[in-house]
Amino acid sequence: MSFFSRLIVVFCCGVLSIQAHAEAATSYAEFVKDKQQHQGYFSFYLDDKTGQVFLEIENFEQEFLFQSSLPHGVGSNDIGLDRGQLGDTRLVRFERVGEKVFLRQLNSYYRANTDNMLEQQAIDEAFASSIIWGFTVSHSSADNSKILIDYTPFLLSDIHHLSEQLQRTKQGSYSIDTTRSAVYEKRTKAFPNNTELEATVTYKGTKAGAHLRSVTPEASAVTVNLHHSLIKLPDEGYQSRKFHPYSGFWQHDYADYASAIDEPLIQRDIPRHRLHKKNPSAPVSEAVEPIIYYLDAGVPEPVKSALLDGARWWDQAFTAIGYKNAFQVKLLPSDADPMDVRYNVIQWVHRATRGWSYGASVIDPRSGEIIKGHVTLGSLRVRQDYLIALGLTSPFKHVDTDTSAMKDMALARIRQLSAHEVGHTLGIAHNFAASVNDRASVMDYPHPLVTIENGTISLANAYAKDIGEWDKYVIAYGYADVEKAREAQYLTELVIATQQKGLAYVSDPDARPQ
Fold first, then answer.
1. What φ, ψ does residue 300 adopt, rounded to 5°?
2. CA 1, CA 428: separation in Å to the nearest integer?
3. In 73-181, at which residue ranges do the beta strands (DSSP E only) sit?
4. CA 104, CA 83: separation in Å to the nearest integer?
5. What is the dihedral of CA 400, 401, 405, 408, to 10 degrees?
6. What is the pLDDT of residues 445-478, one digit of tens each?
7. Which pLDDT does position 26 carry in this prediction?
8. Residue 434 CB coordination number (10 Å)
9. Average pLDDT, the chain
10. Among 296, 423, 429, 410, which residue's Cα sits nearest to residue 354?
């Protein structure tokens, strides 16, 4: 080939390359121009015509948290699929292989906390990860710096394992009907540190069980909402704190294969929110960023005020360790999404029958840091406690019987319940020995303390009216702002001093059947 022939080939290749580059840029720009753009942590585009959501990815191999949840539930305690229920918190990343994109869940339990990259690699290769979904590249930008994937099929998938739960509880065999499912635009939004995506999903099935039939208008079609949160990892400013069997906390554990031979392989920390004083040397200081919980504004009075009062008891414990207004409880703004990871929430959840209340959390699996507390309170509980109070007192001797004392007892129990479940979302475990220690904790399951005054049953002191001594100790263990150099000594001395007071501690591992 002559010099001029080679020059023509090079020139043509260059023109073709420029042309392809321009076409790619035009294609990407053309594709997104008529779609709703939502700019945020993961930006995305909504296609009003097709109902699809296209996620934009710029940084592959970047780790983040993926949280699934159930904003609209089924409404049966026996089935166990409640409004606001959190699914698993997963440490994940997007990976690109040619025209494929994988969402890989990393194995965060097995690790090697070391600077030795080869030792970390050995752990990664020894234990399996899980690719939880596969996508194909829809469009690429001209410089290939960002791509779009059709996220819709994953958003409409059974990531919450609802079909499995219905089958496990003998409520029938169900699968997703995509023709009756779609993106729920109202709660599909992007923010700087999190992207929230939601869908209305219909499960079709047969042989519905009695529980499911009782809570659905048409048992062959069960429609709920499923929610995905894509969450930026917290920065490295969080400092974990060691678990102690007497700490009063749950434990966040993992296997560290880089630990020394004479150190435990299984490392245990406590789960807790991040909290620091603005002025660490001051006896009393405001927090750099207070812990704020938001109550479901749909709760009716007088229950709403009772729930606010009970949850706010925890500020007594934070005040005792030198914080000012470090723990706050407010009403959830009307335009806020309870599933948004930025809000710690207390939800009032309706079921067909009375059921458990519980406190769950979104926890960074790397460190144990609590990112979001999510309390679920069953709305029928207060009615049950009112009936218990009536049963204890048998007050109906006149037509116009006054039952205000019974209502007061029910509300007193709801205050205690609010504090109890919020305590779980602060990382705190049960203490089933607290009631015999002069009501030392709201983390017990207390019976009403009934007294007899002048021959009449009195409910005036049925339940505690504030936080207990054990609760203040637990908050001191988990949240006191202590220099790292003296933390171990501080915790040891605190445990010894509390044990010497005679405060007993019995939690789930010692109280539940295997």
1. -80, 160
2. 79
3. 85-97, 100-105, 110-111, 130-140, 147-150, 173-176
4. 27
5. -50
6. 999 999 999 888 999 999 999 999 999 999 999 9
7. 58
8. 26
9. 93
10. 410
pLDDT tens by residue, 103-144: 999 999 999 999 999 999 999 999 999 999 999 999 998 888
Read off the amino acid at residue 440.
A
Please name which of 216, 251, 196 lies closest in space to residue 65, comparing C-alpha atoms: 196
Give me the numbers of helices (H) and strands (E) for the chain, helices first please. 12, 25
Residue 503 φ/ψ, nearest 5 degrees:
-75, 120
**Contact present, 408 and 395 (Cβ < 8 Å):** no
Spatial separation of the C-alpha atoms in residues 175 and 94, rounded to whole Å: 27
Alpha-carbon distance 70 to 148, whole Å?
A: 26
Note the Cα 398 to chain centre separation in Å.
Answer: 49
pLDDT tens per residue across span 266-308: 999 999 999 999 999 999 999 999 999 999 999 999 999 999 9
CA distances (Å), origin 151, targets 36, 52, 163, 464: 15, 8, 21, 49
Q: Order the strands of the 252-256 sheet from edge to edge.
A: 110-111, 252-256, 266-269
Q: By the 8 A CB rule, do 171 and 162 touch?
A: no
Within a 10 A sphere around the Cβ of 453, how many other Cβ atoms?
8
CA 375 – CA 352 distance, rounded (Å): 19
For 290-402, where are the alpha helices, taking DSSP H only?
Answer: 303-312, 314-320, 381-393
Higher model confidence: residue 435 or residue 2? 435
Residue type, 450: V
Tokens of 33: 């121009």
Confidence of residue 355 (pLDDT cuts 50, 70, 90): confident
Q: Which two tokens stand for residue 148?
A: 């779009």
Rounded Cα distance between 116 and 438, Å, is 52
Q: Which residue is listed with tokens 């840091």? A: 369
CB 371 within 8 A of CB 363: yes
**What residues pair up with 58 in beta bridges, in sequence order?**
none
pLDDT band at residue 15, thresholds of 50, 70 and 90?
Answer: very low
Q: Which residues have a Cβ under 8 Å from the Cβ of 345 and sit 6 or more positions away?
A: 84, 293, 294, 295, 296, 332, 338, 372, 373, 374, 375
- Report strand pairing: 252-256 vs 110-111: parallel
For 344, what's the count of Cα atoms within 13 Å in the CB-facing half-sphere? 26
Entry pTM: 0.91
**Distance in angstroms (rounded) separating the CA atoms of residues 319 and 287:** 11
User: Can you read off the two tokens belonging to residue 512?
Assistant: 């539940």
Two structure tokens written together for 289: 């960023």
Pairwise CA distance, residues 359 & 374, whole Å = 6
Taking alpha carbons only, the member of 451, 457, 465, 359 closest to residue 412 is 465
